Amino acid sequence: MPLLRLLGLGTPDQTEASAGLSAAVRERLAHLPPARAEFTAAFAGLLMRVAHADSEVSPEEDAALRRLVDEHAGLTAEECEAVAALVTAHLESMAGIDYAELTRTMNTHASKDEKLHLIDCLYAVATADDLVSVVEDEEVKAVARALMLSHRELIEVRRRYSDQLEVIRAARKLQ
Fold first, then answer.
1. I need a labelling partner for 134 at 20 to 30 A (CA). Which of 6, 114, 126, 159 fits?
2. How far apart are CA 154 and CA 138, in angstroms?
C-alpha cells in the first residue's frame, strides 16, 4: 500500500479503483459468467476513458456510451442502463486509473476483431460531439497500444473518422 494511503491521505490506488468497477459490474450482472461481466466492465470503462479524456463528459458522449453498451454488450436494456450508471458513478475514481487492468481484461478475453471493434466504438464516442479532439485521439491510440494492436490496424479504423479529427480539420483550415 502506498505511504500516503497508510497515512490516510491520497486516493485509492489504481488497481483498487478498476477492480471496484469490475466488481460492481460482476455483482450487478451476477447471472453472467464472471469473464463476460469483466469484459463488459472493461468495454464500458474504456469507453468512459475516451469520453472523459478532456476532463468532461458531454451529454452527446454519455448518450453514445449508453447506446454502444446497449448495442454491443448483449445485455437487457435495464442491465445496459445499470452498467452505464455504474461507469458514470465510478467516473471520479476512474479519473486516476491507468486503465491497465481494463486493457488486461480485454487482452485476456477479447479476440483481435473484438479489440478492433472496441477501437471503432472508442472513436464513435469521441465523435459524438462531431469532433475528435487531439486528447481524445491520443487516448484511443493509447488504448490501441495497450491492446497490442498494430499502428496499421489503428489507422485502418481511425481513417473512417478522419473528417472529425481535430488535427485534420486544423490542417485543412491552413490550406
1. 114
2. 12
